[in-house]
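Extended Data, record DNA internalization-related competence protein ComEC/Rec2
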Amino acid sequence: MHIGVALPAALAGFMGALLAWISGPDARLQALLAGIFVAVLFLVVYRRNLLIFLVILSWVFISVQHEWGRRLPSGLSGEDVIIQAQIVNVQAESGSSRLRLSIESCHSPEHLPSCSALRSVRVSAYDDQRYLLGERWQMTLRLRPPSGFSNPNTFNFQQWLWREGVHATGYVRQEPKPERLSEAAPTIRQSAIERLASQPLQEQTRRWLAALTLGDSEQLTQDDWTLLNATGTTHLVVISGLHVGLVASFVLLLARFIARLVTPTHWRLRAWPWWLAGVAAVGYAILAGLAPPAMRAMIMTLLGLWVLSGRHAPGPWQAWWLAFGIVIVVDPLALWRPGLWLSFIAVAWLIVIWQGRPRPQGVKGWCWALLRSQLLIAPLMAAAVLVAFERVAPAAPLINLFAVPWVSSVMVPSALLGWVLSPLPGIGLFMWWCFEQALQVFHYLLVVTVHWAPLLQPPSMMVYPLVGILVLMSLCWAFPTVPGWLRFSVPLLLLSFPWWPANAQLNLGEVRVVIYDVGQGQLIELRSTNYRLLYDTGPRFRSGFMPLQTLWPPGQSFDRVIVSHADTDHAGGVSALLKDHQVTLWSTPRGESLPVASTQCVQGQQWRRDGIHYQILWPPAGDNALSSNDRSCVLQVSAGEQRLLITGDVGKDVERRILAKVITPINVLVAGHHGSNTSSGIQFLQVSRPQHVIFSAGKDNPFNHPVDAVVRRFRQQQSCLWSTAQDGALEFSLMATQPIQVIPMRKLPGARKRC
């Protein structure tokens, strides 16, 4: 590769790797951008042609600083603010709506920081009010700075909010009642969404039509996204180069056919078909809402048309860099979008594969070209997905061999033809019926694929060796000069890769414990060599969202699930477990109403697995006078002389009653009732003397858990305190031979020297 391409490529790769490593906006990112800025500044002194990179980087730096300045001040977290805003996105749910608002004005209480810089928020409205795109409203919102749960190997919601430009999240207050200021101005896209909602189609069909043709991907449910992610087919649903390219290609072929009829002697020289294809690409991207994927696809399609037209056109690599620069200038936060890197890596690899090769001829030639491209690009894209998400769909290369042509030649054309022919009675609806049948075939194929080849999450230490093997395979199969023996050796190396599960690394007599960050609720996983137990299932929020859905890919197996009691913050994820995973044995207290067939959790039960001793200390059999909280299952786990105690939501009276059964001292205590003052009594703490105390509580929760009095009591016992609200998920191992080391998922400044 020419040095003019190699040097910027290396620089961009370095930037991309570092920026992808950053999990969100903080001081480290400022220092990183400043360092890169200085490095590029020195390069410009010696290579003047790199000046454009300095300009682009400066623009990114300024834009990032601008975004930080628009975030909700921490002093307004949990406070009410009055805003006037326009609705830019609506996702209607049962009894609620999720709104994206473009803020026009914001007023905070006089004694608090100003919120005038706020520009975009994402809120939930828990009412039956119908909200429409484009409407202007005055509302009272309760907001907090953008944040998300911090759990191992899960989607980083806080980073997603950052790259989507969301400056605060929260909900709409019903008092004072929201006031509509103006009706929605009619738009083609809004009219299309409303027309689609009125069609006699299945709900699933309407969702997928909205996503595939209008770019309204938020219509898709959590189940839809889980299925797409598990099969590596997400790129087929969001408005991407595939959809915009199909529209542009269809218009180009139609226009050139017309040009051939009108000017048969020199139709190849006509420029207007190319311009018409470009206008179609821009129009479709605008109709789809010009979201970042659609905007990126539009830019790449326009430059692709320019290159293919051959009219004073740049080379493929020049067009690639030009597209990259334009996307960054238009959307500086795109550097944090994995889709940007995946898209440009895919296009760059296609250039490498096809540069210097003749264009395919005929249907047979194009079919072989599509098959060859898909096979050659699959290992590299799998490696990129592994780096970005540490998960990979093992069946993605095979499923995409069918899914790509099926979606591009059947589903998308029938969906778009439905819109084109919708003015004709019955014909447009017939095309959408054809789309519905094609969608059912596609959906069934995805379900079968997930069943036989579920999403793979290799151990963290194996991610980069696996990435290296996949990249090596891509290189060996893409270049013609590689010896045949090496080409076939790399796939054998991949097949012999040690695909052992993470729990196989555990020693006999060791149990690994993870207290997940699930907000105001509790979910704890205990895992040994051949045994997996869950204590509680996390909350279910008013919107219907269950954090448990995001923790593991579908198809997990659990030997036992103990639900401490039926409160929503402890049993909210039961339905998700029933739907997506397999549970051998459920345990619940007597008298708790849960939708599972379970055994009773009763004082005195005990069992051993893999050298670990489990014992139920509470509730007693036959005591029906207890409240739901005081019926909580209390679990004690022992590995040699190390002990973990989980008390659920029991109060101080129950704590005193189980003291005689607690083996002290306690190494790790999950504080009762999330740190409420109803639990963690002085006598209990003095006897148990917990070394580490973990509060499973939500950030900025309305109950102020853990309360100050409880925190002071634990500090008087010189306990080391942790909270999922601040530290994210917390992981540690109980072993007879090693001291306990609690590892927080979210690294906070300042070391806990006392711990």
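Summary. The chain has 23 helices and 21 strands.
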